[in-house]
Amino acid sequence: MPLILVINPGSTSTKVAVFKDTVPLFTETLRHNTEELSKYKSIIDQFEFRTQAILNMLKEKGISLSEIDAIVGRGGLLKPIESGTYIVNEKMIEDLKKAERGEHASNLGGIIAYTLAKEHNIPAYIVDPVVVDELEDVARITGMPEIEKSSIFHALNQKAIARRLAADLHKKYEEVNLIIAHLGGGISVGAHKHGRVVDVNDALNGEGPFSPERAGGLPVLDLVKLCYSGKYTYQEMKKKLIGQGGIVAHLGTNDVREVYKKIEEGDKKAELVLEAMAYQTAKEIGAMAVVLKGHVDAVGITGGIAYNEDFVKRISERVKFIAPVYVYPGEDEMLALAQGAYRVLSGEEKAKMYS
Ligand SMILES: Nc1ncnc2c1ncn2[C@@H]1O[C@H](COP(=O)(O)OP(=O)(O)O)[C@@H](O)[C@H]1O
Ligand SMILES: CCCC(=O)OP(=O)(O)O
């Protein structure tokens, strides 16, 4: 019965778990506030900090790395690839370190898994990275031929929750049309058509709703003007869009629980900004209903923010005319990662090779 270490770096957290086969021994979430993360210039600079946090957690739980049989991490911004479990190889590490497709905490999932696994001579995997690409061609075209739309989203959790929702409908994932909204540090809304995510907002690079730390879609020419205003460097502009945008920019925190505290204390601006995030998310769900030509079996709402019933209600009341709304607070990512690694370790599936 293999012991599997699961590492899931998100933009606002590092989640760590150890599974025996596919049974969790423990799962912990280490939350990182804006102040803690703003010390680091780039995501790769967070390597030591996040690795140490994981090692401390293992020590606290009395588990030694020498007992672990395989490590699986959340996959990052690689080339667009199909869904599945991939062995972490040198080429993948090179691409994650170069970060040519962008910087996101999930880049560290593969890198940390590989580094720790190498020291202990065990395999490292990633499963359903954020670049899983099942877009229909029509969804790729933008109005500027030089710019093609990308599929960058919470693929791991969206797929896991979509399967769970299909099961709750007593159907197979491949038989239903679903819209899944993941509400995390980033927000992604995907149209799942018979088991494929045929359209989804790029949750990293400025499409769809703003989120706790992303600016989301913006009036384009105003953005161009700001870029050329001479006020900001490229790196500063990037931070304003990814990491320091959205709720952080408006309210100075990436923690939606803090926003609710402000609202309880009578902060009207906090209430309006929060309502706007729910409004934009609902609007994106509406757009995905159009992608599916109105044939929607259910809408699923998931991610950390889905723990908050008020926020879910703000979305549901706008979208419940489309299809029944199901809520899955948090995520199924840790189990999905462990299951992906286990399918390979048990010989049920062959690991895919990234090239
Ligand atoms: N109980 C809760 N109520 C409301 N928001 C929450 C709760 N727990 C976490 N969140 C919010 O969820 C967001 C993080 O979601 P999560 O899915 O864990 O994302 P990530 O993978 O980006 O770290 C943060 O803004 C956090 O404040
Ligand atoms: C990079 C797309 C997935 C995403 O936004 O993840 P987080 O919510 O963990 O930042």
The CATH superfamily label of the largest domain reads ATPase, nucleotide binding domain
Number of helices: 13
Mean pLDDT: 97
| Strand order, largest beta sheet | 3-2-1-4-6-5-12
What do you see in this structure?
The protein is α/β, with parallel strands linked by helices. It is built from 13 helices and 12 strands. Strand 10 (about 300-305), helix 12 (about 310-320) and strand 11 (about 325-330) form a beta-alpha-beta unit. The strands form 2 sheets. Strands 3-2-1-4-6-5-12 form a 7-stranded mixed β-sheet, sandwiched between helices. The chain has helices at about 35, 45-60, 90-100, 105-120, 135-140, 155-170, 220-225, 235-240, 245-250, 255-265, 270-290, 310-320, 335-345, and strands at about 5-10, 15-20, 25-30, 70-75, 85, 125, 175-185, 185-195, 195-200, 300-305, 325-330, 350-355. It has 2 domains: about 5-135 and about 335-355, ATPase, nucleotide binding domain (Nucleotidyltransferase, domain 5); about 155-330, ATPase, nucleotide binding domain (Nucleotidyltransferase, domain 5, 2-Layer Sandwich). The ligand CCCC(=O)OP(=O)(O)O binds near residues 10, 153, 184 and 203. It comes from Thermoanaerobacter siderophilus SR4. It is found in: Cytoplasm. GO terms for molecular function: acetate kinase activity; ATP binding; butyrate kinase activity. Belongs to the acetokinase family. Its EC number is 2.7.2.7.
List the helices and strands and how they pair.
Layout: E1 3-9, E2 13-20, E3 23-31, H1 34-37, H2 47-60, E4 70-74, E5 85-87, H3 90-98, H4 107-119, E6 124-127, H5 137-140, H6 155-168, E7 177-183, E8 187-193, E9 196-200, H7 220-227, H8 234-241, H9 246-251, H10 256-264, H11 268-291, E10 298-303, H12 309-319, E11 325-329, H13 333-345, E12 352-353
Parallel strand pairs: 1-4, 4-6, 5-12, 7-10, 10-11
Antiparallel strand pairs: 1-2, 2-3, 5-6, 7-8, 8-9
The protein binds adenosine-5'-diphosphate and ligand LANB7ZPL.
The ligand CCCC(=O)OP(=O)(O)O binds at residues 10-11, 104, 130, 152-154, 184-186, 203-204.
